[in-house]
Amino acid sequence: MALDALTRRRGTSAPAPDPVTGAGDTPAPARPPVRKIPLRTRLKRDRSLLIMVLPAVVLLVVFAYVPMLGNVIAWQQYSPYTGFLHSTYVGWANFERVFTNPLFLDAVGNTLVITAFQLVFFFPIPILLALLLNSVLSPRVRTTIQSIVYLPHFFSWVLVVTIFQQIFGGAGLVNQTLRDHGLSGFDMMTNPDTFLVLITMQSVWKDAGWGIIIFLAALSTVSPEHYEAAAVDGANRWRRMWHVTLPAMRPVIILLLILRLGDSLTVGFEQLILQRAAVGVDVAEVIDTYVYYQGVVYADWSFAAAAGLVKGVVSLVLVLGANKLAHVFGEAGVYKRA
Asked: Which of 114, 123, 199, 208 has the lowest tally of Cβ within 10 angstroms?
């Protein structure tokens, strides 16, 4: 009776007695309410961090988001002499030209072929090199190899193409060596049949070291106790790599793969435009070089803007789709679900 009076005074009902034991159920503890911090308090608390990131935000807005307003010329017959306000509005005519232009479709085909080839023969190489370096016990040897492999990342594409020209060109080192031994040489730099292999070799030599750093950073988070526990359980080196190392690298691999898919329509403007004249338009023309020549060289600004906008939209769809697929498999992807 005293319990009933107390519960009535508090405005709650007493727990129902169990039909078997006669005892009442223990109520679950109430979760404390989450107090939302006011925006003014959060701004005051994080003002140092906000001030630090402010220059980067300003640069991003000025050089990335403000130029997006220029995409309005994709729906105009734009002329730099009349400007945005006085150019003739043509609706979706430029986009119709994009999808019916055979040269643009050929550029899209070359872009997809290069992307697929490099996704198979270039993307796994930094992963394999990171696994090899991670197995090296001497930190000095690991640091030396990593520095040598990473050094070409700082070279410009002009220097990279020049080095490959001196090695694989018609008068390069390889051909001179073959001729000295009575063999016929070959010019890899001007051969359309080997152009796909050539640009993949250049990309591997220049950018594989950058991927190694990212994957080694992921491997550094793996606790040595995991390897010791696997070794105690009888796992050999390959088992430890399969069950400990690769699962630790999986989130980073998926993240970079998503970003690579989003960047699949951008396969290296500088690298390809430097070698476009040597091997021909049929194999070296990609979306970026096509847009450059149509918009800048031939002054067809509206058509080039429409083609570039189509490329951007498709890249965005690829990123969102790959990120959604990563969520289906339980990975965070580029961003986590709310």
From this structure: 123
